[in-house]
Amino acid sequence: MKCRQIQDLILTDYTDNEAPEAVRRQVEEHLAACSACRQFQAAVRARAVEPLQEAERAQAPARLWSRVTSAIYAQPLEPAPAGVLERIKNLVAAPRPALALSTVAVLLVFGAVLGRLYFTGSVQRHQLAEAAVEEQIDYFAYGNVTIETDILDIGLEEIFS
């Protein structure tokens, strides 16, 4: 591992004793060989670990706990689904059906365009269709829109003629 990775682990899982045993061994081997990371670990212990070990544990006022529990109990509980079919229905229910339907419609249209372009035999058209489908998938999945201009040098009239 590199020093940056070791230092990230020192700041998180290693210092908190949450790292798996294999990772702990790797960190300890690195610390044995790297004086910069040993100094980093000492600084982390001095500034983050030791002050908290010596601090007194604070107690929250009783009225705070009563307000928290009151707020929790004041929230209405939703009834649990009764049967297995109802639970499955809740798992697969689309939160935005209009978006899901429009996505399917657009994918079908682009699939049809891809099919037409693919069966014309043109390698350039095939690349264009692949780029268009990938762009649409990126758009709907991630909101990314990128256009590769070197692939898109065919005019629309040529594609749909």
**Which class do the helix and strand fractions yield?**
mainly alpha
Which overall shape is indicated by the principal axes computed on the Cα atoms?
Answer: flat
Q: Mean of residue pLDDT? A: 75
- Give the oligomer, counting copies of the same chain as homo and different chains as hetero: single chain
Secondary structure: helix percent:
55-70%
Unreliable segments of 5+ consecutive residues: 149-157
Element-by-element helix/strand order: HHHHHHHH
Fraction of residues in β-strands: under 5%
Sketch the major β-sheet. none
Alpha-carbon distance between the two ends: 57 Å
Number of strand segments: 0
What is the radius of gyration? 29 Å
Count of discrete structural domains: 2
Number of helices: 8
Describe the structure concisely.
Helix content is 69%, strand content 0%.
Model description:
The structure is a single chain. The chain is an all-alpha fold and 161 residues long. It has 2 domains: 3-54; 97-159. The protein is built from 8 helices and no strands. Helix 2 (21-33) crosses helix 3 (35-54). Mean pLDDT is 75; it is low at 149-157.
Keywords:
mainly alpha; 0% strand
Secondary-structure map with pairings?
Blueprint: H1 3-11, H2 21-33, H3 35-54, H4 62-74, H5 84-92, H6 97-119, H7 123-142, H8 156-159
Helix pairs in contact: 1-3, 2-3, 6-7
